[in-house]
Amino acid sequence: MEEHINRLKREVRLLKGYVLAVLLLLGTISLAAFHQAGRTRFSEIDVERLNVIEKDGTLRLAIANPERLPAPTFYGKEYPGIRGGVAPGNPGIAGMIYFNDEGTEMGGFGWSGGKTDDGGHRAVGLLTFDQYNQNEVMALTYVDENGRRSAGLTIYDRPNVSLQPVIERLYEIAQLPDGPERTRRRRELADERRERGETGARRVYAGRDRSKAAVVTLADPQGRPRLRMSVDSLGAPRLEFLDENGTVTRRLPGAQ
Amino acid sequence: MDHQIHRLERDVQRLKWYAAGMTLLLLVGALAAFHQAGRTRFTEIDVERLNVVENGGRLRLAISNRERLSPPMFYGKEYPGIRGGNAPGIAGMIYFNDEGTEMGGFGWSGRQTAHGGHRAVGLLTFDQYNQNEAIGLGYVDQNGRRSAGLTVLDQPNVSIQPVAESLLVIQRLQDGPEKTQRLKQLRENLERRGEVGATRLYVARDRDKAAIVSLSDPKGRERLRISVDSLGTPRVEFLDESGNVTHELPRDIR
After folding, report:
1. Chain B touched by A62 (CB under 8 Å)
2. d(Cα A49, Cα A54) in Å, to the nearest integer?
């Protein structure tokens, strides 16, 4: 009997020691976990999306796979389903989208590339900065469709108005069912913007264009090319001055 | 008495099982934690700053919000508060060379200012070794007065670290004539020694609303300028060292 009790006592003492040890271990671990809130070290991270945020939660940068890249955003409000042209966030383009201090999109850095169903390929690489509350003001772009490609630097003029009302309308239109009504309203909006001169103008292009020419093209504020310096696919160098209608008025080297 | 001992025995038995379970749990937890050291997978992470470091801890890239943007760094030494130009106030990334010296940045900012104006900046730069930027894509906008373009620069073949050291000392001074004087002196000394950068190439839509390609000599003097100005006039100009146009196209085409 006495022996029995002694054994029990010993076992209880052992268990007490064990509990103490576990408590100590857990304490250390939770302290370490708390410290991780300051700065954590990993050797390697796999993520589908990484957000860099201000202390108050304002999104400044999102790095993501194509599915998780954010939609166009104005003052923190997302407008899904309206991205046009070649842009990060479009189907297949992964990369990053950045936002200004007010949570409005300010550009993107994205890429994609792959075989297409018809055995060809399609590849895109781009880096853009948007004008304040507007579309892109500057872009480095590579676009390749089955080897028909262009690569270059483009600089735009954008109007000094916010693009948000246009985005609001585009978003409304995007909610309509696919059909003639949607197409009509899209065209209407595009016409309206063109009439008000709010679409912007391409002022500078320096690149290798789709016709295999190396070119520098400078345009007027209406986007009409007025000066073109080029070496075409056959190697002919040329400097051309153009008028408002696109007619070459002077050319170097001149006709012999 | 017997009944009591029986109960005690049962309790001890239970506690033993509990201890065994606990041990197993801790082991699994520790293993999982160990696994994180290799490669961890997340669906989505929010961070204020992300550092890419070498195995030994040397910083190679810092991606951050505005508040946590890395200060300029030379050989691992930080120089807070001396960032100049359009960089202050940006969020984005700063990258560092193999020696822990800043090598450029990719950043952006944009916000309304007082009186309904706005200020916006977008930058992507690569620095010359131990120097200021050698190439930069920049968009700078002050209330709609803006420029956007590509700049290529020549920087002197000396380290800029001594300048950073001086700036670090000067920027700790109180704002006032003394500080202004010291900054002016520093700038003049650099100019006298020819240790300032020179813009060699500028392809842009400039602040005068012209689309231009401008090429300059090693002293930064514009010598060839191709442009379409805000009125749409196309022009090619050749300039001498004093900035006088010596030839102009299409005017001088025979």
Report:
1. no
2. 16
